Amino acid sequence: MKASYGWLLKWILAAILIGVGFTMFFSKELVFLITGIVIIVFSLFRVVPLVKSLKKEILRTINIVEIVLDFILGGILTYVGVEALQSGIQPDSIWSMAYKYILVFILLSRAIIYLYSVVFLDEKTEQIKFWSHIGIFALGAAIIGIENFNEEWIAWLLLIISLFGGAYLIYDGSKGYGNYRKYSLSINQQKEVTKDSKIEKDLPKSDQPVAEKDDDRPFVS
After folding, report:
1. Where is this region: Disordered (predicted)?
2. Closest CA to 108 of 70, 79, 146
């Protein structure tokens, strides 16, 4: 059994995750910034796998157009977030409305393009991907129907996710810490056994008293 310090990393990540969740909840400017960065990263990481895996030219073209549009929209949200953080002023209400419809566009376009490629372009898929995209479409449609939807909704959602994620990391890290303490206890027990064995080795083997050696010097009366 070896010592593992993964529990410490999980606790640090839990603290960071919960801290970021609360920070975004109380600083709505960060919601724009984080959302924009997530969209940009997601768009960039999709490019190479899609180009390599899609065989039909029309599929590649449609997906590349989607990625470019998502990248631009993500850049807009990132810009708004950075400007708001630098100025210390919350974004105008028009940006809150823009935030809503940017999310709607990204969700609906992803679902529609996926379903179109499956139904009309014979793209093979899996059940879990199919139903997840149905869920994405439903989520985008639901956001349209929520009149006062804005970045605060996402702030609440991110806070809840960060709390649940942080709680799981703390719980999982606690199990790892328990294993670490058991390992530490086993080391101490081994040291005690080794120490006792050494002491026992130094003690006399027999219970009989050790006879004193006679002095060779002559007795003087």
Report:
1. 195-221
2. 70
Query: What digits encode the pLDDT tens for the residues 112-145?
Result: 999 999 988 888 888 999 999 999 999 999 989 8
Contacts of 56 (CB under 8 A, 6+ apart): 121, 123
Q: How far apart are CA 59 and CA 53, in angstroms?
A: 10
- At residue 34, does pLDDT exceed 80? yes
Burial (CB count within 10 angstroms: exposed 0-12, middle 13-18, buried 19+), residue 181: exposed
Helix (H) or strand (E) holding 206: none
pLDDT at 40: 94
Instruction: With 0.85 as the threshold, say if the pTM is over it.
Output: no
Q: 3-class DSSP state for residue 149?
A: coil
Query: Which residue ranges make up each domain of the chain?
Result: 31-151
pLDDT at 221: 44
Instruction: Choose among 4, 13, 15: nearest CA to 176.
Output: 4
d(CA 72, CA 39): 9
